[in-house]
Model the fold of this input.
Amino acid sequence: MKLSISKNVHLVEPGDFEPTDHWYPRVLNSNIHPLVSYFLNLSHEQMTERYQRLNPKADKEAILEILKYQPSYFRWAGTDLMHVTNHEGNRKLTVIETNSCPSGQKSMPLLDLNVEQGGYKRLIEKTFKPMVDQHQEGGALAVIYDKNPMENIGYAATIADVFDENVFLAKFDKDDKEPPVKFEEGKMFVKNEKEKWEEIRAAFRYVTQEPWTRLPKNPKTLILNPIEACLAGGRNKEVASGAYDVFNEKFKDKGIGIFTPKTFTKVPYEELKKYLEILGGSMVIKVPDSNAGQGVYTVVSEEELEYALSQISKDDLYLVQQLIHSNYEEGLDKSKSWYHVGTIPDFKGRSYAFDLRLMMHATSEGLRPLAVYSRRSGFPLNEPLPEGKNSWEVYGTNLSIKGEDGWTYADERLMLFDIRNFGQLGLGIDELIKGFVQSAMAVYAIDQNAIQTFGKKNPYV
Amino acid sequence: MPLIKMPFKPLARKILMFNFRNQAHNMDTNKILIVEDDVVFCKLLTRFLTKNDFQVLDAQAGKEALQLIETNSFDLAILDYRLPDMNGIDILKKLKAKENSTKVILMTRYGDEGIANKAVEEGADAFVSKPINPTELLEVIKGL
Done:
């Protein structure tokens, strides 16, 4: 590795992969839970068969079509799901959001102890490399990123090994006035050690923040994922919500659908209060293009509404969702309310809300699960919230700590899918299958939306 | 103990690394300060040096570095010349004023070679030009 070949650019060389640099310490010493390993190795046919046994109305051919789908744009995704139940104990995995270019590798125990690069290698070998091999452009390889250096150094080192060539690792920060990455007529260039622009034939992208105009549509440089995946819903909750609606309409006769909390889109600032009444005194307000837990507000009181209103712009439109409740209370609408199933109570009886991050990628077989982990909330579902504590403590699961450098996170709330933690989640293979099928449907919906918006394309060119 | 002027043979790539002090001295103590505004650089080099038995603290800005200097005693500082709020020579002066025995390696970028003389005048012990190969930097550190 050559550090700082130019400002914010490092040259990663074959042989640079160091597991301790690309996984959280806890994960390095963990062993994947056998049920999770079993799930990750299930064939599409097994998952389809099982999903239909769990959802007898579901059409098997339609599910298989979705699992074997080859996305044009959205070939690497991460879905956040929550395990919920209703008044009658009908449990579901609900889609909270779907992200293009997601994090997750650093929290995933090795599936095969003999493959030291784990999920990094599966993603690069089975998704990125086949695309690059068929892409007829000249130039070097690059990883461009704006967050999460721990995983992005890992991706760069894996690409260097898989392709046996050096890889430019370039930070493309939105606030950088002179970024080391530029595009000319759709071709990407990165600044090299002589401060000259180096041509890039293919880039692995972990640029997750606006402005999206930094990345051209239909670029000459192959990019995983291209910006179209973000614009079609991969980084915009409102556009994604529209794509899910289209999907649900299209597949309603097939007995399948993307399950999300009840959602209202394009809600003006001044109408947010009205929605709090419509939803029975609780809701979630989301800034449509926010991520990493920023710009999401859980509201269970007038005070929390006032706080949320003080934090967001009066000029924007918002996405409002039904809150998944902590506990049943008198007055809740039994036909519409959903509750967190929560973790298995610990020895003090505390059960916490949690989410599942399910990362998947498009391979020659279709969509495959790649990495999975959970994050739990900070305060239990089944204890009264102390005076002055925000409900986000009960419902929010994001691990990011403000000012993070990629190495700082709330470790005590990270729930690995390993032998120690997985059992505490109360999940089984059926939930993992249901979650994966929900996630695959969300990816399908967003990719179809991208095709509708930007046109059909061959993902390899 | 051998006198080390150039701690390694000329490299395949063009790289400038000079040890300015004609001293027969090896780093036998191990607390290092890295000051560099690129967090990835800091973390990768920190991990590399930690694996090589050094204790490392890092700062991404001059102000932050000065706070660490106030509250710590370092055997070596690896300072980037270009920082967002000051330059590496400013920090070098503060370090040497506090503890003259602290060794200093100044890092510069392509085109910054002209500052080497100034660095020597202010007491820098070595000067390395980016890009930095951690293994080669370790040789320089061991040669101080």
